[in-house]
Amino acid sequence: MAYAIEVEGLVKVYRGGVRAVDGVSFSVEAQEIFGFLGPNGAGKSTTIKCVVGLLKPTAGTIRVQGVDVHHDPGVVKRTIGYAAQETAVDDRLTGWENLYLQGRFYHLPRAEIRRRGEEVLKLFGLWERRGDLAETYSGGMLKRLDIACALIHRPKILFLDEPTLGLDVQTRKIIWEYIERLREEHAMTIFLTTHYMEEADALSDRVAIIDRGRIVALDTPGALKAGIGGDLITVRFAAEDGELEGVLSAVRALPGVREVKEGEDGIHRIVVEQHGDRLIPEIVAVATRHGVGIASVRLKRPTLDDVYLHYTGREIREAEGTREEIFKSRRMQRRARR
Question: Could you tell me which residues are beta bridge partners of residue 19?
Fold first, then answer.
């Protein structure tokens, strides 16, 4: 099978020995929406910048549309579109002028820019505001204009690095609709990075979970969730860890229990095959026999949050990002509130 994107053994080490990406390998099929999920600082942006040719990898091979990015970066860049975390829109230009400038960068004829420009601006609901300065746009409009600029040359593959960073929930879902339309109407391959679980779940055909520079899981969202069990029971025992050995051993021996793992803040995650509601009374009874109280218990179906916690032992939190990435997020939030 000829893949749209192939990455093998990608490594990126920055000055000072910081290993941002550590042996990442994956492939993306044509017309697939491929999600790269992880917290800020996990290596998502570094990976995408290496794939589009903005960063030189320390090691590894990257092919886009069968072309080696290292040997023919110009060929690759002409066939892709890229919208970074921080929008590249010039506030001092109108929406149309930003789009026109981007088209000229790709040496498109003026008539072609006018035709394609009208098409993408209407697609993103910006046609009526094309003559307004970008500084008057909301955060969501700026992000839509930035993606429109990445589409003016009709790329075969669109790379979106945190496309909804800092946007409110309603605007985020509007962006999702546009992304799905791009794939459906233009047969486009879309590679997106995100740290929003719901976004990865809603959009992606497949999701790669990256943590500390390494891919720890890769599959469809449904398969990833199904892989950790039918139901999840989270329990906080009213006891110290050393007093729980007998209780945990007895819980593991209960029929239908697949796994017991300790997460953050002393909360234990009990993965069961099915019928978690029937197991809760048995878990309570086991704890009672061992003289251990239960502070809280909760039953839920698995989500991508649970998948990430399962593979990494912690939750994705905004504060995990670098100082630069947190600054970018806050800046986008300020623009979105205008």
Answer: 13
Domain termination site, one of 166, 190, 224: 224
What would the mean pLDDT of 66-94 be, rounded to a whole number? Answer: 92
How many other C-beta atoms lie within 10 A of the C-beta of residue 59? 12
Q: What is the total count of domains within the chain? A: 2
Residue type at position 287: A
User: How confident is the model over 261-284, as pLDDT tens digits?
Assistant: 886 667 898 988 877 888 999 999
Residue type, 11: V
Please check whether residues 104 and 216 belong to one and the same domain. Answer: yes
What torsion, rounded to 10 degrees, do the Cα atoms 235, 239, 243, 249 define? -10
**Other residues' Cβ atoms within 10 Å of the Cβ of residue 71:** 9
Contact 144, 125 (CB under 8 A): yes
Per-residue exposure over 165-197, b if at least 16 CB sit within 10 Å of its own CB, e if not: bbbeeebbebbbebbeebbeebebbbbbbbbbb
Same domain, 48 and 196: yes
Residues 97 and 129 in one domain: yes
Residue among 188, 227, 184 nearest 209 (CA): 227
Which of 164, 190, 224 marks a domain boundary?
Answer: 224
Is the pLDDT at 244 greater than 50? The verdict is yes
